[in-house]
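In this section we walk through a basic example: taking a raw amino acid sequence and producing a predicted 3D structure, encoded as discrete structure tokens. The instruction is simple. Fold the sequence below.
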Amino acid sequence: MAHLITDDCIACGTCIDECPVGAISEGDIYKIDPEICTDCGTCVDACPSEAITEA
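The resulting token sequence is shown next.
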């Protein structure tokens, strides 16, 4: 199950740098591609605004 970025996202870019498979794309609120996400949880640990949850 892929992770989901909520409206709490501050678009800081921390999660993009941490994702080992490049599943996160930029925007006003970042998005995680569920087809690419391996559910490793690295982005959850890296997010300073705690905006990433399990989908």
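Looking at the output, two observations stand out. Strands lie at 3-5, 24-25, 31-32, 52-54. The mean pLDDT is 94. In the next section we compare this with other chains.
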